[in-house]
Amino acid sequence: MLRQVVRGKVDGFDFHGQRLRLCVSALESEDYALSTRLLDYWERAGVSAAADDCIAGALCKAVTRLVKPALACLYPRGMRRRFDPDAARAAKGSREEISLVLRNAELRKLLNHLGPHLSFDLRALALVCRLLRGCLCLFKEGEGGDRNQADAFCGGVLETCVLPSLCLAPANPAASAEVWLVLRDLPYERRFSLYGGWADKCEGADLLRAACKLARVETRRILRRTTAAGEGGGPGQGLEDRGSEQGFLRDLSRALQGDSQGGGAQQDARDENGETAAERLEAKRRLARLLAKCCHACPLPCLEVIVAQVESYGESMAAPIVEALRYLTPFGHDVLTYVVLTRLAKGGREKFKEDGTNVADWVEALAALVGLLARKFPKEVETKAIAQYVLNQLKCDQTVDLVVLRRLLKETDGVMHVDDISDNQVEMLAGGNMLKVSGLLKGERTQQMRLASRALRDRLSLSLAAGEGEGAREGMDLGVPLLVMTAQQHNALMFSLLNPPLKLLGVLIDRCQSSFLQYSAFVRGDLDETSAKDLAAYAKLLPSVEDMSSLHGLEPEYVFHCHRPLMRALLLWSHAEALREEGQEEAQAEGKDGPLGSWEDLLGVVRRAVRDPKGLDLDLYATFWSLELSDLFFPKERYDEASQQVDQRVQQVDKALGKTDKDASSLKEERDFLETELKRIGGKRGSQREEQRFRKKLLERANIEHELEVTQRQREDLAALRRLGVDRRRELREERERCRVRAKEAAACIAEAASKRWDGHEVDLERLFHHCVLPRVRMSEQDALYCGHFVNAVLPLCEGEGGQKLNSSKAWAYARLESGKLLGILTQAEAARLGIFLSCSREAAEDAEGSHTEALASLWTILANRLSQDEYTARCNAMTVLRRCVGRGLDKEPGFEGAKQAVLEGLAKVAQGAEEEDLKQMAKSLAGLIVGKTKKPAQKRKPAPAEQGKGLGGSGNNNKSNNNGRRGEGPRASGLNPRSPPFVPRGGRGDRDRDRHDHHLHRDAPPPRDRHDGRRDGGGVGERAYAHPNSHKRRLSDGDRGGPGARESGGGSKRRRGDDGMVVSPRDRDREGRRPGRHHHHDSGRPPLRSGRPMERPPPRPMEKRPPPRQEAVKAKPRPPPSSTTSAAGAGAGAGAAKSKASTPSSRPPPPTPSSASGSSRPPPPSARPPPRRESEPRGSSRRTPPAPGGGGARPDGEGKKRRRSEGSKQPQRGGGGEDSQRGGRDRSGGERHHGRKRSRRT
After folding, report:
1. How many CB atoms lie within 10 A of CB 3?
2. Could you count the other beta carbons within 10 Å of the beta carbon of residue 769?
3. How far apart are CA 838 and CA 788, in angstroms?
């Protein structure tokens, strides 16, 4: 079709095919002037002559001839050798030859006319790429015109010829690799500019637009299959975080779940589609290869479709896409970075949701994609370009893009900042990294994350090992400016001219503060504060205190936050008298002589450049900003909890190891036994039966060998988990000891400073609160808790007014008064930190006396007044502070009782009258918390004397008071009423399962019988023989153990010998009928025991006399078919009753006694059905049949003993499943149940 279009263009302008052939001849004869003139003429006419195969081939050959001399200089050892820049520079006349090629105008014109049709000859494309690479490497260090000329030539060829030709070339990763070798030497700004021009050309040319359209369609088709395949996890899922806390828990749970099935059970398990984990993993890899193949040919349109897919489906789509891009080339990853940044910077879309405060889903999805790509492919993704984008957005006051930076740091380094955390998590911030990881305050750094973090630090030039001079100063290009810009966002938003809504402004300030804390922790990294070398490198990396304060205009709290490790080291080195442990004197001498200076120099810098707090001791001011939470507080309880968790996991692994060893030993015994059997049977394989037996044994041995291998692999996995747990326990103990020593050193340093440096200086609480406490409380949760411990532990060492020691109650009284005034100007996160700070005043409130008590109690009045206001910020902050204080137990102090009612009224007003839904929910939950924590627990009511004797089945309602004793003891045992009716559940089980359940509750009732047992024992249709429901797993009875009715052959054996000497199995023993003294006491003379005392049997009701059944043996008649009005045998215990009329006695022989049953060959006959219930009898009553003559055995009617219902019981019977429930069945007392009065009238 393309040739027809070209031919139509030529005919329309009166061009003939011989002119094309003339151009081909001119190119072959190296007449470039004629050929260029013809090509220019056709280009002005709108015809692309290179679309013809002959013209394209001739142009490619001409370009190859022109670049060969230059390639010979660049590759002196041949084209098959690797390119060596040093050899190219050393080659004679290389620079002159390359300069001639760059100045060759004919080569430029031929490449411009060739354009994307360079893909016609991939060999010519590779030669052009190698020429461009050599030019960039040779003139990389050059200056002046040669460097500019090389950049212009290479950029033009790449934009017009090389990059567009990839869209028309078939998928070839080698061609993409050649292009990337050229592009990687260019800065990312230049590369992204070339990608932008490439995208414009793809939209302008018809041929390129068609190729991109086909690539987009194919990519969408593959993505649909990739998403479906990515839903299931393969066996390799999660291996990258095997060393993390989450990976440890997951691997342990998998090992504990699979120890009974074997390690290979999960790999062989199939999902709902019938695919195993290995098959799913192979399917994902196959689709990933297809996706990479599309990106090799047309990376730009394919990756645009992928990014658009992630935007549409949200953050959950990012992980499968990253897994599918595993086979993408570095060139494809670079193009993907450009596409993501282009989508983020593209205008016309709102980056906030409709509520105006939360970030849009598509921005969150792209941020997640960036983070996962940077962690999975740290060397291929250009993270420096991402950081530059965030920096540029901050310059334009677009703080919403900080979500990209936060997600990037979280995925690569594991550092994160959580605002809304519990009190225990706040205390965990005083510990080390392992304690923070256990508290979900920091992500565990895996090996992959360590590589990603190192690559990101190198890209931002923030590595502490960058060296002196140039390496450290390169960090000023991007890393440190990003730190300064995040610190400046607080004031920038406060004084912004955009005037955003108040709620949105507070949310943006909190996000900026969170981003600054997260990025500053990343900049600090794994800084060893005991190493002078690391501290010196960190000092060179950061701007000085003077520059950050005066030049960049940062507040003191931000300056001191960045320089705190250096200031703390100077503080410890300056107090050598308080640090007499080993190695501290050498560290002090090294610090004084090093580049950090001394403590006195730091005080001079603070007084001169930062702030001179008049009325406040400068040494106390600098000490306050130098220490951290771990210096004042040691989280002993949190470390104990973390150690206990690790110990429990190790114990679980040990238990699983013991079970695995036991299974392995049993498998080895079975294997040895089978090998012995195989040796014995091996010589007897004469018949076919023996051969089959031998093969069966071989198969069993192969199965056991497989199970043994699986068990061994499982044991290795468990052993690795145990080693991991032991290592974690050891590292946790070491970290705990380091934190304890750190807190001890800081305490000694503070005590020495208070006794020598702060002595004689009075502390002004107003200046201390406004210059130290309040700014640091607003920084983070860790700093808020630090301020609380500083007021409790350090201020009592200082002097107050009159030369006396400062009272902590006085300090907290002033802090509470001033904090109440600030509730209207704080953000929600800052209010939560203020609540953490105020929650540390519990001890001071309990010990307060006099006027301090009233001042401390004024906080609750202020909070109640704030709740009654109509301003959103005041209400929200008041409830946030109140929640923190109540959660830490401040509601127990006496001052809260006086203001409790006012606080609850204010919360009720907010819950009912507030327009904001979040305030309503917050007020309701907080009111419930206050009421639940302050009300007294309800005392248990003592039972009345008349109710104490009532238990189960009694008429009293207070049955719970009698359930405190154990079985057979206390009021519960004495409260049993044998006359009470049996318990019938309201739903769930049928008659059969219900009777089994009631049999365990009422042991005087016989067990149920299964339908198949009656057929097995030879009974009639519908009969049931006795079979215990748990006969397959019940323990030996008294008779088996040698008790009453024990066998003569020994009580412990499962088989015994009968009267005739034959061995009787347990199943045959059950067929013989019940024996006295066994598990059930149906025929024993003594009543059953329950709850530790014998139960009195109720007297039998008077029953109507009936003639006894016939004793002579009569041949059993076949049963008539059941009628529609009669019911089948019920689910009660004993054999089912045969259907016969009540007036006619049974014509069947009586069942034999147990002694004669074992020797009789005739099956036991069915029992006669008891007479129907009379209309005069109550519906719940039952009728008992007289015992059979001779007693001791089963009853003549085969019903056995039944628990009778009490008279007047109206509780309905719930029918079971199966045939019995459909036709009525039997009631639990042995009688026959009928529906309605139809049966009664008939009888």
Report:
1. 10
2. 20
3. 7
Q: How far is CA 745 from CA 61, 561, 738, in A?
A: 78, 21, 11
Nearest to 312 by CA among 370, 373, 360: 360
The encoded tokens of residue 1243 equal: 């009888």
**CB within 8 Å of 911: residues ≥ 6 apart:** 920, 923, 924, 927
> To 5 degrees, how large is the angle CA 737–CA 739–CA 745?
105
User: How many angstroms separate the Cα of 909 from the Cα of each of 869, 882, 924?
Assistant: 10, 16, 10
Between β-strands 1167-1168 and 1137-1138, what pairing exists: parallel, antiparallel or unpaired?
Answer: parallel
Under a CB-based contact definition with an 8 Å cutoff, are residues 1031 and 1070 in contact?
yes
Tell me if 793 sits within 8 A of 645, measured CB to CB: no
pLDDT tens across 821-846, in order? 888 899 999 999 999 999 998 888 77
pLDDT of 501 higher than 60: yes
Of 1210, 1213, 1206, nearest to 1232 by C-alpha is 1213
Q: Tell me how many degrees the CA angle 135-139-142 measures, rounded to the nearest 5.
A: 170
CA dihedral 953, 958, 963, 969 (to 10 degrees): -70
pTM across the whole model? 0.72
pLDDT tens, residue by residue, 7-66:
454 444 444 567 778 888 888 888 888 888 888 888 888 888 888 888 889 999 999 998
Q: Which DSSP helix (H) or strand (E) runs through 33?
A: helix 32-44
Q: What span, in angstroms and rounded, lies between the C-alpha atoms of 101 and 91?
A: 16
Residue found by looking up tokens 């008590």 in the block: 853
Radius of gyration of the chain (CA): 45
List the helix and strand counts (H, then E) for the chain. 54, 8
1163's tokens: 């099956």
Give residue 701's identity as a one-letter amino acid code.
R
What are the structure tokens assigned to 37, written together? 């003139």
Measured distance CA(521)–CA(717) in Å, rounded: 35
Q: What are the Cα distances from residue 91, in Å, to 136, 387, 672?
A: 16, 40, 75
Is the pLDDT score of 224 beyond 70?
Answer: yes
| Range list of H helices, 824-935 | 828-838, 842-847, 851-867, 872-887, 894-913, 917-934
Closest C-alpha to 1008, from 997, 1020, 1018, 1021? 997
Cα–Cα dist 460/383, whole Å: 8
Predicted confidence (pLDDT) at residue 341 exceeds the cutoff of 70: yes
* Helix (H/G/I), strand (E/B), else coil: 1137: strand
Q: Is the pLDDT of residue 1240 over 80?
A: no
Whole-angstrom Cα distance, residue 25 to residue 55? 10
- Residue 1111: strand, helix, or coil: coil
Question: Is the pLDDT at 92 greater than 70, yes or no?
Answer: no
What's the residue count for the chain? 1243
DSSP code, position 1100: P
Angle at 1190 between CA 1187 and CA 1195, to 5 degrees: 35
Strand ranges, E, within 675-815: none
User: At 1063, is the pLDDT very low, low, confident or very high (cuts 50, 70, 90)?
Assistant: very low
What gap in Å lies between CA 143 and CA 140, rounded to an integer? 8
Confidence of residue 972 (pLDDT cuts 50, 70, 90): very low
Q: Count other C-beta atoms under 10 Å from residue 85's C-beta.
A: 15
Characterize the bridge pairing of strands 1093-1094 and 1089-1090. antiparallel
Mean pLDDT of 77-100: 73
Residue 149 has a pLDDT of 81
**CA nearest neighbour of 811 among 870, 857, 763:** 763
Exposed, middle or buried: residue 642 (CB in 10 Å: 0-12, 13-18, 19+)? buried
Q: Is 280 within 8 Å of 287 (Cβ atoms)? A: no
CA distance between the termini of the chain: 97
Q: Which helix (H) or strand (E) holds 1009?
A: strand 1009-1010
